[in-house]
Amino acid sequence: MNFHYLTKDEINIIVNIDKESNKTPWSLHDYEESFKNPHHYFVGYSINNKLIGICAYSLVIDEAEILQIVIEKESQGNGYGYQLLNHVCNLVIAQKATQIFLEVMVGNTNAINLYHKLGFNIIGKRKNYYRVEGKSIDAILMAKTLIGFDLS
Ligand SMILES: CC(C)(COP(=O)(O)OP(=O)(O)OC[C@H]1O[C@@H](n2cnc3c(N)ncnc32)[C@H](O)[C@@H]1OP(=O)(O)O)[C@@H](O)C(=O)NCCC(=O)NCCS
């Protein structure tokens, strides 16, 4: 397994993984805009040289936010999402983040369970944050304090 920072050259494969495996994927335009943002980072998870997961995060001063995390459908349920998010938490700690936030769609139990397992707590709700197939769905806001986090 291998983690690496993704570059814009990999944008088409990133968009493809997101589109195939995520209910709320970003468009090519979303990723193009995000790549232009100097506070945004993209981490890929490869197995046998094949990209199977991506995570986009932002870091502004000491606050990090998970913007997107996706493991390709056929590789889900093998612990890869946990490893990828754990790796990203360690990266932002090394970048001096003290808190990390994320939003997740109400009902996305797999993701919510993953975030709880990594120590994220629910801190609020955003009404009608997502739009899926014409329906508005609330987001749960979660956070994790990184101060004192064990890097080992
Ligand atoms: C959410 C996601 C990234 C998890 O990645 P994954 O590799 O499938 O998850 P893992 O195998 O690492 O599982 C880690 C934990 O997540 C939770 N989880 C993952 N799949 C689950 C499932 N099918 N049912 C219940 N909990 C699940 C569990 O807590 C699991 O820990 P456990 O195995 O000890 O029970 C992946 O399902 C995904 O890409 N989903 C589509 C995109 C998405 O919804 N992203 C989140 C946007 S906010």
Keyphrases for this structure?
41% strand; binds coenzyme A; alpha+beta; Aminopeptidase; 4 helices; 152 residues; single chain; 7 strands
Strand order in the sheet with the most strands = 1-2-3-4-5-7-6
First-residue to last-residue Cα separation: 18 Å
Query: What is the total tally of β strands?
Result: 7
CATH topology: Aminopeptidase
CATH superfamily: Gcn5-related N-acetyltransferase (GNAT)
Unique ligands? coenzyme A
The helix/strand order is: EHHEEEHEHEE
Q: What is the CA-based Rg, rounded? A: 15 Å
Coarse shape: globular
Low-confidence stretches: none
Total number of helices: 4
CATH class: Alpha Beta
The major β-sheet equals:
7 strands, mixed
CATH architecture: 3-Layer(aba) Sandwich
Measured by DSSP, the beta-strand proportion falls in 35-45%
Number of spatially distinct domains? 1
Specify the structural class: alpha+beta
Write the layout of secondary structure elements.
Layout: E1 2-5, H1 11-21, H2 28-36, E2 40-47, E3 50-60, E4 63-71, H3 80-94, E5 99-105, H4 109-117, E6 121-132, E7 135-145
Parallel strand pairs: 4-5
Antiparallel strand pairs: 1-2, 2-3, 3-4, 5-7, 6-7
